Every structure is written in structure tokens, then in C-alpha cells.
Amino acid sequence: MKTKTLLLGAAASMALAACVPGGYTGANNPDQGPNANRNAGAITGALIGGALGATSGGDERLTKAAAGAVVGGLIGGGIGSALDRQAQELRRDLTTNGVSVVRQGDQLIVTMPQDVLFATDSASLRPDLQRDLYTLAGSLNRYPDTTVEVVGNTDNTGSADYNLNLSRKRAQSVASVLQAGGVAPGRIIVSGRGESDPVASNLTAEGRQANRRVEFIIRSIR
Predict the structure, then answer these.
(1) Domain containing residue 133: CATH number
(2) CA distances from residue 221 to 23, 56, 167, 216 in whole angstroms, order as listed
(3) I want to staple 207 with a disulfide (CB 3.0 to 4.6 A). Which of 12, 106, 169, 201 is the partner?
(4) Quick check: is 105 in a domain?
């Protein structure tokens, strides 16, 4: 019994240690450091692994729970570390003004303003501004255990139906470039939200400009 208690304590200590904040402040998210995703993944993995171990029957249930927590924590921490590395690389390599990379839980969100990719009221990509898309494709190829959701967004100028259709066409145009860059079609999800998901007020020119964007939501599949 003492051995089982010690094992459970070790697993709990590992999860708690992952919660200790570091001394770094992320450039795009001041509340999360470079190890934030690794730590969150370790905690989640430990909890899942412990729960699976605890469902086993017999006197070894607690021992299996502790072992499951340790293994789950290691796996979850590895996923988080990969997301952190990918975020850092994308911030380094995507140099166009207005492009941002933000960690949000267990996913990365890359945002490219419409003006970086499209002319006004058009779904045809500007040929001189596709470098960042191929850079992103290269990153996705280096991290194959991920999917990417390409989401088109517009401001509220014009009818809602028109904007929704335009946002979908733009997302599809961008997805086509990612595929041309070697990303497997099965890893890409395409959607358009039109004017339904603003990040700023549509009452100002600056706000409407911010709302016209394409987002790339990168998620781990392991």
C-alpha cells in the first residue's frame, strides 16, 4: 500500500510541477511562456492516463493509475513542446507586417490580414504575396501530426450571404496553395464565417480592416 501511495504522489507531483510558471513572457500572449503548451499537455495527459489506469480492476488499480499518469504526462508534454517549437519557428519565418501567431490552449492560430493575400472584393490570391503561405506549408510539412483549419472572415460591408460566400472562396484559394506546397488534402479543413466572427468593431475603417482576415487553426492529432 505504501508503494502505491508513493507512486500516486509522484504522478501528482509531476502534474503540479508542470503548472509552475517560468520567467518568460510570450511575445504574442503575455500570459503564456514558451513552455505553456508543453505544461498544459503534460497535465492533461497525466490526468487522462491516471483515469485510464484507475479503471483497471484488482489490487493493482492504484499502481496502474500512477503509471498511466506518468506515461500520459510524458506524451502530453511532448505534444505541447512540439506546438511551442512550431509557434516560435512561425514567428521567426512569417515576416509580413500584420501576420500573427498566437498559442491558444492546445492549438496555434496564425492570422493573415486580407490585404496580405487578396485585393478588395476578390478571392484571387495576389501572386506577389504568397510567400508566407508556402512558408506555412513548409511548417505544416515539418510537423505532420497536425491538421489545419483554414477559416475565411470578412467585415460587414455588403450582404451577409455575399460575405459568407466570399469568405469560403478565399479560404479555398488559400487551401489550394497549402496543397501545392505539399500539405496533404486530408489534413486541411476549409470553412468560411463571413462577417459572423469579428475581432473588432465594424463601425470604423480600422476595425473593418482587422475583421477581413484568414485564420489558420493548427491542431495536434496525437
Answers:
(1) 3.30.1330.60
(2) 29, 26, 26, 15
(3) 201
(4) yes
